[in-house]
Structures are given as structure tokens and as C-alpha cells.
Write a structure and sequence with these properties.
18 strands, 3 helices, 6% helix, mainly beta, 403 residues, Leucine-rich repeat, LRR (right-handed beta-alpha superhelix), 18-stranded mixed β-sheet, 15% strand
Length: 403
Amino acid sequence: MAEMSVLQELEEILQARSSLLSRETIPVQRQNQNDPPSHVISVLTENHAVVALSARYCELTALPSSIDQLTSLRVLDLTGNLLTALPDSLGNLPHLQKLYLDGNQLTTLPETLHYLTNLETLHVYSNHLAVLPDGLGQLTNLKDLSIGHNRFATLPESFWQLANLQVLNLAENQLVSLPETIGDLSELRTLDVGHNALASLPESLGKLTNLTFFLYLSVNRLTSLPASLFEHLSTLRYLNVSDNDLTALPESVGNLTSLIELRVSHNQLATLPESLGNMTKLKELHVMNNQLVSLPEAIGKLEQLKALRLSNNRLTSLPSSLGNLRRLTILDLRNNRLTVLPASFRDLNSLTSLDLRANRFVSLTPSIGELTKLEKLDVRWNNISSSQKALQPLEQRGCVIYL
């Protein structure tokens, strides 16, 4: 009866917001699962108790303080509402495991949050938070925490006690530094600190040896990366350091032998290290908008590479080893200073898209016609004649050519 009373109170609120029609009730699902309900507004019951509640994008401005009567609640999804605060009674939900509050207008979180000792997932992305409760560090079962797109300039020391975190999103805040204690988050698999104001990173980042999935460092003010990052994160698969002020990558970057995707666009790199060739699992390499004048010969060792994006650099030539990239499907060389392509280009037999716009070509090597899988060739803003014989085989095969 207590649970029915809570749901009726919530129904009245939703009806007043026109998220439910007059006399319409919240749909009930009876499934033995621990995932959020599939409907925008719904509850999930198990053994005659509410275990999950979803009220997403309903223009809710307040949550009933009686919410703690749902004593079996494991999942609460309030994504995309107009909540500015939450009742303290939220801390009285002993079984709550997942709490989704993304896309609200929260300026604070209740101090009672630390009582949710079974909480494993907390998402408050895109709110107006500038401060976290001091007790947050007591949520030792927390594995997935997203506080991105808020207003955090600093985080409490207790924050770095969340030793079981596996996914941490701190992106799109106002952080100017990270403490050495970030290295204590030893279970992290994914870390996103992009879109902040970081000028440097702590060496303890290298202690995150379980960081096997994603490391986002893009859109900061980094001029260098800690050596420990390259010495110990050999199992990392995705690294994004785009939109920083990096002038060089160290030779030790080649230690990241598990990388599948590397993004270093929008920096000030003039060269790439030869050790890049050690990243033999790399499938995507993004180096647009730098100051590259050449590529290392070792780039030809990246035999798994499928996408290579080098637009807006200062390349005057390409290494002959480029022809070893037999799995390459996308090659973007737009806005460089190229006049010729290496003869080995004919060996790029998986290439489907080639962008040569805004270079200094006056002709193309006949071997370009041997690219049997090429579907799109863009050579605009060069001085290439449309009567070039090299283009005829491509046209006959149906390749789209932009001149």
C-alpha cells in the first residue's frame, strides 16, 4: 500500500505536467531483470515489489519525498527532467544500484547520498553541479560514475577513494588539474577528462594499468604527456589527445602496442616518431591539423590500419612504405603540399576513399588507376586536367571523381 501511495503521488505530478493523461496510470512491467524499464514512464515489479522506476523526459521539477517507501528499488531513471534538487529521503533506498539523473538542472546532490552503499552506477551528466557531497567517497561499490558537463573546478579529496570505479567521466567541466591520488583508482577501464582546462597530467596516471578501453584527454591545454602513460598503459586500446598544444610525441609512444585508435589532431606536431610502427594493432590514425612535413617510414608497419587522416598538414612527400597498408580503406590527404604519389600507391588495393584536395598536383601517376576498389576520388583545387588518362580506368569502373 505504501508503494501504491508513492506511485499515485507521482502519477498526479505527471498528470499535472501532461506527461500522463488524466486518470492514466504508470505502466507496470513484470519482468525478472535488473535493467531500467523500457518505457519513458514505467515501473518494473518483482515479487509484488517495485524494483525499477523510470520517469524520463517528463518535465519533472520535483521528486516526491515519499520515494523512500519504494524500499526494494534497485534502478531509478530520471533522465531529462527539470529537477533542481533531490529529496534527502533518496538516501533511504538501501537496495538502489543504478541512479540516472543526466540532463536535469541539479545544483546540489543530497548529503544523504552516501547512505546508498549498494550504488554501482551514478550518472549526473549535464547538470549545474559545482560541488559534490563530501560523503561521496563512501560509495565504495560505485563502478560507473559520470559527472561530465557540469561546473566542477575541483573535486573533494574523498572523491579519489572510489577505488572500485571502472568508468569515470569528468569531461566538459572546468578542471585545471588532477591530483596524484587519481592513481589510486586502480580498477579504471575508461577515463574521460576531455574538454577541461588541464595544462598537465600527474605521473600517477601510469598506475592505472587496468585502463584497457578509453582514455580521453582531448580539448585541454596539454603541452606534454607524462612518461608513465607510455611506460605502463600497454593494454590501452583508444587514446584521444586531440585539440591540445602538443609539439611532439615521445619515442615511448610506441609502447602502446594494444592501441586500436589514436587521435592526435589539432596539435602542433611537426613529426611522428618511428616507434609508431610498433602499434601493429592500430586501425585508425587521426593526425589532422598539425604541422607534419613528413611521415616516418615505419608507418608502413601498421598493416591493420583502415583509416589514415592527415588533412591540413605540410606534407611534401609520402614514404614508399605507405603501399604496405593493404587494409587501408580511407586516406585523407587534403590541404597538404604534395606534388606526387609514391609508386607503391598501386598496392593500396583496399582503398575506397582518397581525398587529395588542395595539394599541388598537376598530374596523377597512372598506377592510381590500379586501385580496383576505389569508390571516391577527390582532386579538386589542384591543377589536374580532366583528360588525365590515369582517371579513365577509375571512371570506367564507376568510381566517383571530383575534379
